[in-house]
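Thread amino acids onto this structure.
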């Protein structure tokens, strides 16, 4: 046993003296701080991952809730949208978290605030007395709009007077000229003002937001927005030329009482028998009915006595004019006569209905004699633009009459083509950046009272000239409310403008889009106003194009391209290819606008969304609204998407 104890002591001494054993002790002692360091890193990473994910979920919910709001009112359904988005991004128990809370609220100022919290259990750090982390985040979102130009291109054709409760039954909208409380035009006015409110609520104080309007029907009223230099001085209208001729008349200047002969040309005869009329039955006191009737038939007749012309004013069968001679021929014909003087006067003869060019004399075979009244040669459109009035020889019997210009225009020269991709050369009307330099490129004033539908006696359209004394009818012409260029408008100005919109006429989408694009383009005639904002930041450009129906051109009315059956600036025959060509032109205008980085939002109001509208709109920017309430919702969504949502914290 003693030996065993000795051996054990020797082993312990050896172990104490053996330095290689120190590594074990050192390693054991180092494990504690190492575990704290590694465990802290792992749990800290888990914490930051969980906190970041919770913050992202909070932000997503706040953005979604704000986008869901129709105005500054925060509804229960808006809160639920925010909660749903939070849950999709941070579900209950994610990262083993517990006690999750989240909520969204708003103080009515358009800002949505959110909060979220939870607890994250630790792993390794639990050995050091740290059992969990507190998770807590906050967020808020508001709509903040930067520099933005918004051009409303609005269909104000006759069908906009249809009630939104019976759109399908309102077949012929052009005849609905009376608004009712729920007319589509009434809903449009409300939707535009609501749109304005949504955008203005979201506008940054330093941003510029401008609004413009182009109401359209068969034409647009843009003339008063154009510089004078871009309006034409001459133009050809489907009008009429008055023709005059010299007419010889005889005017009375003296009269006397004469015995009239039985044969009127014998007046002046020295033979008394020429003046004796019969009486009856050889009785000087009895009338002869035949000769009495002969005498009375002379009234109003003219006759010559040598170089002089005379006219019978009145006549009376008279007995016993003669007291001698045969008893059968004692009656006479007493008449008042007057001598006439020859006079030549210039008188209206007829009209020649034909294409007439201002400033040119003797058109369409008029060849009026010297001394004729002033005609088309005196007409110069440059005199129109001072007071919007001009004298033209279109009145009754060729009289000069004063015509008033209402601001609607005929387009610049076009190309008669079926293909519009690409746009043909010299199709100046489809150049949304056109700056006119020639008469062909300039815009022309629409003068409805100078234009006539050239119909034949059977009321059929007639392409050739027509000569007649008949006053042919002027065409149908509906000039919308004057367009409004981009400007910073207040709510009252927007309300006043849309309340002035009236619904009339047929639907021509192409002319509405052409001028909506011209008004908002950063190039072209309004470049100086549109290319930059005062703060130097970029400008977002948007066209909100609203129509309540399909394109519906009419060959007989007077529109931007004249009367299409007669002028044929768009079609080859004035009829069968009209709609297809206007549709192709509409798509060309849409492409031109998009190429200027203008976003097009298209809304079909009361009609199914057509493929043509979808094709015109920017991707994902086409909407369908079946009634007034849905139009307001569509405009709300567009306004919210135009306004850029941003996080404020």
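Threaded sequence (649 positions):
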């Amino acid at each position: 046993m003693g030996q065993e104890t000795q051996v054990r002591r020797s082993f312990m001494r050896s172990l104490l003296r053996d330095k290689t054993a120190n590594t074990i002790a050192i390693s054991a002692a180092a494990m504690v701080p190492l575990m704290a360091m590694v465990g802290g890193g792992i749990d800290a990473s888990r914490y930051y991952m969980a906190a970041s994910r919770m913050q992202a979920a909070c932000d997503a919910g706040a953005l979604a809730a704000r986008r869901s709001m129709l105005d500054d009112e925060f509804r229960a359904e808006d809160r639920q949208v925010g909660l749903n988005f939070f849950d999709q991004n941070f579900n209950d128990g994610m990262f083993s978290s517990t006690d999750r809370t989240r909520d969204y609220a708003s103080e009515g100022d358009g800002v949505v605030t959110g909060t979220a919290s939870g607890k994250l259990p630790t792993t390794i750090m639990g050995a050091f007395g740290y059992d969990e982390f507190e998770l807590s985040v906050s967020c808020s979102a508001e709509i903040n709009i930067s520099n933005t130009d918004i051009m409303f291109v609005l269909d104000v054709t006759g069908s906009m007077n249809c009630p939104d409760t019976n759109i399908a039954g309102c077949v012929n909208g052009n005849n609905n000229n009376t608004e009712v409380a729920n007319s589509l035009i009434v809903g449009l006015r409300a939707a535009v003002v609501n749109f304005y409110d949504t955008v203005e609520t979201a506008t940054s104080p330093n941003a510029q937001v401008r609004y413009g309007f182009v109401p359209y029907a068969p034409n647009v009223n843009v003339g008063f927005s154009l510089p004078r230099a871009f309006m034409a001085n001459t133009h050809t209208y489907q009008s009429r030329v008055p023709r005059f001729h010299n007419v010889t008349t005889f005017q009375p200047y003296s009269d006397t009482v004469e015995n009239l002969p039985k044969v009127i040309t014998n007046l002046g005869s020295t033979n008394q028998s020429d003046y004796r009329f019969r009486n009856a039955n050889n009785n000087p006191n009895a009338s002869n009915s035949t000769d009495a009737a002969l005498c009375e038939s002379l009234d109003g007749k003219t006759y010559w006595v040598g170089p002089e012309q005379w006219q019978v004013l009145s006549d009376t069968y008279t007995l016993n004019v003669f007291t001698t001679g045969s008893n059968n021929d004692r009656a006479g014909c007493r008449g008042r006569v007057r001598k006439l003087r020859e006079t030549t006067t210039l008188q209206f003869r007829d009209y020649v209905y034909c294409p007439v060019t201002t400033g040119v004399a003797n058109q369409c075979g008029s060849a009026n004699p010297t001394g004729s009244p002033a005609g088309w040669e005196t007409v110069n459109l440059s005199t129109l633009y001072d007071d919007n009035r001009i004298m033209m020889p279109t009145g009754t019997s060729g009289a000069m009459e004063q015509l008033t210009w209402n601001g609607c225009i005929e387009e610049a020269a076009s190309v008669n083509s079926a293909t519009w991709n690409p746009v043909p050369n010299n199709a100046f009307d489809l150049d949304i950046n056109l700056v006119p330099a020639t008469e062909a490129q300039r815009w022309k004033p629409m003068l409805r009272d100078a234009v006539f539908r050239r119909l034949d006696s059977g009321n059929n359209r007639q392409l050739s000239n027509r000569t007649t004394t008949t006053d042919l009818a002027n065409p149908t012409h509906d000039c919308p409310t004057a367009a409004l260029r981009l400007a910073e408008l207040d709510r009252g100005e927007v309300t006043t403008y849309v309340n002035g919109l009236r619904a009339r006429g047929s639907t021509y989408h192409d002319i509405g889009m052409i001028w909506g694009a011209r008004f908002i383009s950063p190039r072209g005639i309004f470049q100086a106003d549109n290319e930059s904002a005062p703060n130097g930041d970029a400008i977002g450009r948007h066209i909100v194009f609203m129509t309540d129906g399909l394109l519906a051109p009419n060959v007989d009315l007077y529109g931007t391209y004249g009367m299409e059956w007669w002028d044929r600036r768009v079609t080859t025959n004035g009829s069968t290819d009209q709609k297809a060509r206007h549709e192709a032109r509409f798509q060309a205008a849409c492409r031109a606008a998009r190429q200027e980085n203008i976003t097009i939002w298209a809304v079909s109001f009361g009609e199914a969304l057509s493929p043509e509208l979808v094709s015109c709109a920017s991707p994902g920017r086409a909407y369908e609204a079946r009634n007034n309430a849905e139009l307001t919702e569509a405009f709300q969504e567009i306004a919210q998407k135009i306004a850029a949502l941003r996080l404020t914290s």
